[in-house]
Amino acid sequence: MDSLALETVTAPEPVTVERSTVTLRINGEETELTLDHRTTVLDLLRERLGLTGAKKGCDHGQCGACTVLVDGRRTNSCLLLAVAQDGAEITTVEGLADGDTLHPLQQAFVERDALQCGYCTPGQLCSAVGMLTEAADGHPSHATPPDALTAEPATLTPDEIRERMSGNLCRCGAYPRIVEAIEDVTL
């Protein structure tokens, strides 16, 4: 019988989890949280705060299901580290309505039946709110004709809306109704 050489194995050093305390204003309510530095805004919203409107679709910033507004700008919350947002105003689909009164875009989505399974709808709504603000502020898109770049915000055509919303995917194919709902709000 051969004797096996026993190798001394040492336990790895324990992983130190870095944490910081941040203050966020989420849907109008200020919240102070101590967070692991690796926590994304999406995971914070869904797992710690129970705000499950924003969805984890691809978890790579490619589908838009997790879109929320951060300081009024639309962003993919799956890519955003929560500790980097200290002091930010975060609005989720749950924060768009005013009590029992739906946001005009939410109402238009209902009236136009601009959803099927509904999985992407919260991200579509937050993206549409941010997109309308961007357009009103004069930000062009790839579909904006050069002669439309004036001090006045351009009228959003269906092509313009589709281009501006292109970061939000819908597997059901509700795109025509989504565009119509957004058009209803821009008129």
From TrEMBL:
<keyword id="KW-0411">Iron-sulfur</keyword>
<protein>
    <submittedName>
        <fullName>(2Fe-2S)-binding protein</fullName>
    </submittedName>
</protein>
<feature type="domain" description="2Fe-2S ferredoxin-type">
    <location>
        <begin position="20"/>
        <end position="96"/>
    </location>
</feature>
<dbReference type="InterPro" id="IPR052914">
    <property type="entry name" value="Aldehyde_Oxdr_Iron-Sulfur"/>
</dbReference>
<dbReference type="InterPro" id="IPR006058">
    <property type="entry name" value="2Fe2S_fd_BS"/>
</dbReference>
<dbReference type="Pfam" id="PF01799">
    <property type="entry name" value="Fer2_2"/>
</dbReference>
<dbReference type="InterPro" id="IPR036884">
    <property type="entry name" value="2Fe-2S-bd_dom_sf"/>
</dbReference>
<keyword id="KW-0479">Metal-binding</keyword>
<keyword id="KW-0408">Iron</keyword>
<dbReference type="Pfam" id="PF00111">
    <property type="entry name" value="Fer2"/>
</dbReference>
<dbReference type="InterPro" id="IPR001041">
    <property type="entry name" value="2Fe-2S_ferredoxin-type"/>
</dbReference>
<keyword id="KW-0560">Oxidoreductase</keyword>
<dbReference type="GO" id="GO:0016903">
    <property type="term" value="F:oxidoreductase activity, acting on the aldehyde or oxo group of donors"/>
</dbReference>
<keyword id="KW-0001">2Fe-2S</keyword>
<dbReference type="InterPro" id="IPR002888">
    <property type="entry name" value="2Fe-2S-bd"/>
</dbReference>
<dbReference type="GO" id="GO:0046872">
    <property type="term" value="F:metal ion binding"/>
</dbReference>
<dbReference type="InterPro" id="IPR012675">
    <property type="entry name" value="Beta-grasp_dom_sf"/>
</dbReference>
<dbReference type="InterPro" id="IPR036010">
    <property type="entry name" value="2Fe-2S_ferredoxin-like_sf"/>
</dbReference>
<comment type="pathway">
    <text>Alkaloid degradation; nicotine degradation.</text>
</comment>
<dbReference type="GO" id="GO:0051537">
    <property type="term" value="F:2 iron, 2 sulfur cluster binding"/>
</dbReference>
